[in-house]
Write a structure and sequence with these properties.
about 950 residues, alpha/beta, 8-stranded mixed β-sheet
Length: about 950
């Protein structure tokens, strides 16, 4: 490839802005950035955390605890609950705020899209955000218009203005100089204007920017370019149902615990009350239940909806304002007032209010209420949503760093369940660094070429590509890479393509499409001095339509023997994986009509063909092998010929050397089959050659009907239907804006290896969320079981409210942080794809949750029975119990970390700094809480010996897990 030594003096009929003019216009008119929509201030986002029903329960519990504490002179527990509320809401706020910031990368990347412009008399690219008023911009099919502009040149230019008008019908655009003769078409916007965020549907042109940023038409409407952070993924919805179901179960357990505590109090004589006192307790219970309707009723409704019961909340309950809450509380007070009044009237209530209920009994019932609150707090897994948010934010950020820009959140999880990848060839499996390897133009005897040649004119005029020149560097193709390779070939022969393009006066142009397989441009030739129609496209298509051939001696009839010889040479190039491109022309076409079928012309003259090499990416064969090993089928869908496609597929490993020829089928053959036959063919076909975009969409649809989860790649405007159809649409970073808009993930470096990497990330993300659920539900079952059984084995409060809040903080917030940000593990690619319809709690998870939780529960019950064998349970013994419980969960978090991986919990642990830091924080936090918590946490300091025994003894949970994982690795146990 030739290296440009000096900047070209004549690059275009447009000079473009100088750097000084660019800066001046930026100062005068502003930059090409849209002001983002106004966001809620951080303090409002933080206050929103208090809308959580669980937090509201805790606030009520804190108020009651402090109120009672004031009378008793001990309100430490109430203050402790408030501290726990502030800590929990603040941590949740910080995590979600950080996640929201990470999602902003989508808008930033959109502003960095390269735009082809002319500056300083040279074609170059600049980021979208750096465009200024006065810039000369080149646009072509599939481009998204970067700013408002006036059309200077238009060749078959049609623009889709649906983003502004809602009308999907493309609007023709014409150059300003032609406006007077054409007149206004009555469209919403002038035909000589193009607007930001509209899309070039067909043709190409040159525009001059007239407005940027907020001054553009779409900027004035204050619309956000990309705002998808609130989209709920299917996994999120599934986890929300799970959370709701667990919430209602937690509420039931809490009520059962309160009933159990009251029953135990009656049986042991601790609650020896008169009938009047029981009446007062009943009235207060009903009133409290009514006051808290806005807390417990939504939990029940959500829980019932999670099992398929459709229930609508009453209208009065949907109003969640402060006034509505006050009304609710006033209604509850009215009930208690009426109840007490009726009690007075029926002489059921003691005359003196001091006899209604004693202080000791009030404290007992308050304690029961607090325990129920704590159980609900522990049972409701509000950390599930947080773990998904964290996992998605973390995965999206890291995937972008590895060339996978996730545009739609659901794609993060869905890509991991992919069973079939339908991949393009060019640029995805190959490097897209196309170079002309051989030329076959019969009119060139020695294969040397000069500028005054119809071949040069054919290449320069019948093309929309450009070259970006930089002093001392290789020229970079802009636009279609196949056309770019042709321009680079001319450059190697010291031919300035822009000079020849400017000399050709274009009259009409038919842009290339995958359906037509050719491109045609008609204009006035400076070589022949007459009108000429240049055509380039699939060689076999042009070869069949040509009846003459241009030789060194001039135009001759096309002999059949010559035609056969050329076809054989084409086959030879295609069998070694070369892409071939044919050229033909018509002199002075009298009956030219745009869209006229090629075979209808009888005067086509064959110019010749070129063979273009595009090397396979080095990392692709290994990536394909990994995908195949992971149970993901890879199919190549390409517009290239069958021979070229098969050779590339063999080189990559999609087809093995032993595979029969029926592993490849052409698009034409596919279109001749009905859906049932195609489905049968697709079971074994790995390569589809000469495919059209409609073929790709049909293949995706049929694979989906057979239960496959399909990811499809595409880079062109015509690929948009297939990208939309697939569960995961993967557009190329070099692709058109239409393709990118239709896709879920943008592969920034265009490489298939990045797709394999995305599959690994998707599987790891799903597994990380499973790890969190496994860890959390194990504690849920154990903690609720202890709280429920405690009263029946003689201990009302195995845990205090604040201790349970600490446990909740460990398993909800800290565990979500630690497990949701686990880096991906290559071992997930050793398993078959998961069934996308399966519930996230798998059978192995279910077995682990209930078996481990049951073992923990038996151990804890035995522990509690042991410490009360002398009928006295001291704070020291309860401190031992509390610390033992937390440390067991601490070690079990390491087991959860490597769930499903069959590897040691300590392998690659250094790669997750967050996990190590959070584990250290939990460990140190537990020590500080026990040693210095005192009355607030109901703990007393433990000795060093106690700590060593507890830490060492509870670690057996981890060592048992390590031994089991070692057995799995050694003996391949599943």
């Amino acid at each position: 490839m030739k290296t440009t030594q000096e900047p070209r003096q004549k690059q275009s009929r447009y000079r473009g802005l100088t750097q000084a003019e660019v800066e001046a216009n930026r100062q005068k008119y502003g930059s090409n950035l849209l002001t983002p929509p106004k966001r809620s201030p951080w303090w409002k986002l933080w206050l929103e955390k208090f809308d959580d029903p669980v937090i509201r329960i805790l606030i009520i519990a804190a108020v009651i605890a402090i109120t009672v504490g004031i009378f008793e002179g001990n309100y430490v527990e109430g203050l402790g609950i408030i501290a726990a509320i502030i800590l929990a809401t603040s941590v949740a706020f910080l995590n979600e705020y950080k996640a929201g910031k990470e999602f902003d990368i989508l808008n930033q990347v959109n502003d960095e899209i390269p735009i082809a412009v002319i500056r300083d008399n040279k074609v170059t690219t600049v980021p979208k955000k750096d465009l200024v008023v006065g810039d000369i911009v080149l646009i072509e099919t599939g481009d998204e218009i970067a700013a408002d502009g006036q059309v200077l040149e238009a060749v078959s230019l049609e623009v889709n203005e649906a983003s502004l008008t809602g009308e999907a019908i493309p609007v023709p655009k014409i150059a300003d100089v032609k406006l007077s003769s054409n007149g206004n078409t009555g469209c919403a916007y002038p035909p000589n204007k193009v607007l930001r965020d509209t899309v070039v549907n067909d043709g190409h042109g040159v525009i001059e920017i007239t407005a940027v940023g907020d001054e553009t038409e779409i900027g004035k409407t204050a619309r956000c370019v990309l705002d998808i952070t609130d989209v709920e993924t299917p996994l999120n919805l599934q986890l929300e149902r799970l959370s709701n179901l667990i919430g209602i179960l937690g509420l039931v357990v809490a009520v059962l615990i309160d009933i159990a505590l009251v029953a135990r109090g009656i049986l042991t004589g601790e609650l020896d009350l008169t009938s009047g006192q029981w009446y007062i307790i009943s009235i207060l219970t009903v009133s409290l239940t009514v006051a808290l309707t806005r807390v417990w009723l939504p939990i029940i409704v959500d829980g019932l909806e999670s099992i398929g019961k459709e229930i609508e909340l009453p209208e009065w309950l949907e109003n969640d304002s402060g006034i509505a809450w006050v009304k609710n509380i006033l209604f509850a007070l009215a009930i208690s007032g009426i109840g007490i009044g009726v009690g007075y009237y029926l002489e059921l209530v003691p005359t003196s209010p001091t006899d209604w209920i004693s202080a000791d009994v009030a404290v007992k019932f308050l304690t029961y209420f607090m325990i129920a609150v704590a159980v609900i707090v522990v049972a409701v897994p509000e950390g599930l949503a947080l773990s998904v948010t964290l996992s998605l934010a973390y995965s999206m950020q890291k995937m972008t760093q590895q060339n996978n820009l996730v545009r739609r959140m659901h794609a993060c999880e869905t890509i991991g369940a992919t069973t079939v990848i339908c991949s393009d060839k060019t640029g995805t499996l190959t490097e897209n660094k196309m170079q002309v390897s051989d030329v076959n133009f019969p009119s060139l005897d020695d294969k040397t070429i000069n500028a005054d040649n119809v071949i040069v004119e054919a290449i320069c005029s019948n093309s929309t590509a450009n070259l970006e020149y930089k002093k001392g560097e290789e020229s970079i193709p802009l636009g279609d890479h196949t056309e770019g390779a042709l321009l680079l070939w001319l450059e190697e022969n010291n031919i300035d393509y822009i000079d020849k393009r400017d000399d050709f006066d274009i009259v009409s142009q038919l842009t290339f499409s995958a359906d037509r397989k050719y491109m045609a441009t008609m204009g006035n030739s400076s070589i022949t001095g007459e009108k000429i129609l240049h055509i380039k496209g699939a060689p076999e298509l042009l070869l069949a339509s040509c009846h003459q051939i241009l030789t060194a001696e001039g135009v001759k009839p096309f002999a059949d023997s010559t035609r056969v010889s050329i076809a054989a040479e084409l086959n030879q190039y295609e069998t070694i994986g070369r892409r071939t491109l044919g050229f033909a022309y018509i002199r002075d076409p009298q009956d030219y009509q745009q869209g006229k079928e090629l075979e209808q012309y009888h005067d086509l003259i064959w110019l010749g063909f070129v063979a273009i090499a595009d090397p396979v990416r080095e990392d692709v064969p290994n990536a394909v092998k990994i995908c195949q090993k992971a149970g993901v089928k890879v199919k190549m869908i390409t517009g290239d010929s069958r021979l070229t496609a098969v050779e590339i597929a063999r080189e990559i490993g999609i087809i093995s050397q032993d595979d029969p020829n029926d592993y490849c089928i052409t698009g034409g053959k596919l279109r001749s089959l009905d859906d049932e036959a195609v489905l049968e063919v697709l079971k074994k076909v790995k390569v589809i050659a000469r495919a059209r975009p409609q073929d790709k969409q049909r293949i995706v649809q049929l694979l989906q009907t057979s239960g496959e989860v399909v990811a499809v790649t595409g880079d062109g405007t015509n690929d948009a239907p297939a990208l939309n159809q697939a569960q995961v649409g993967l557009s190329m970073g070099s692709g058109t804006s239409v393709a990118k808009e239709a896709s879920d993930i943008i592969i920034l470096n265009d490489s298939f290896a990045s797709i394999e990497n995305a599959v690994m990330w998707g599987r790891s993300l799903y597994q990380n969320i499973q790890k969190f659920i496994l860890f959390q539900l194990t504690i849920n079952v154990a903690a609720c079981g202890i709280a429920l059984l405690g009263p029946f084995i003689g201990i009302n409060l195995p845990f205090t409210v604040i201790q349970l809040l600490w446990v909740n903080l460990i398993m909800d917030t800290f565990a979500a942080l630690a497990l949701a940000t686990e880096p991906p593990n290559q071992k997930v690619m050793e398993n078959a794809p998961r069934n996308s319809q399966d519930f996230i709690i798998s059978k192995p998870m279910m077995v682990s949750i209930f078996s481990v939780a049951t073992v923990f529960l038996v151990f804890f019950v035995a522990f509690l029975l042991y410490i009360q064998k002398d009928r006295v349970v001291t704070p020291y013994e309860l401190s031992l119990f509390f610390t033992t419980f937390v440390m067991l969960q601490f070690w079990n978090m390491f087991n959860a970390k490597c769930f499903g991986l069959k590897e040691s919990a300590f392998s690659n642990i250094s790669k997750n700094v967050s996990f190590v830091a959070i584990a250290a924080f939990i460990f140190v936090g537990q020590i500080l809480m026990v040693q210095f918590g005192g009355a607030v946490f109901r703990t007393v300091p433990l000795s060093l010996r106690d700590w060593l025994v507890i830490v060492g003894g509870t670690s057996i949970v981890l060592w048992i897990g390590e031994i089991w994982r070692l057995i799995q690795m050694r003996f391949k146990v599943s």
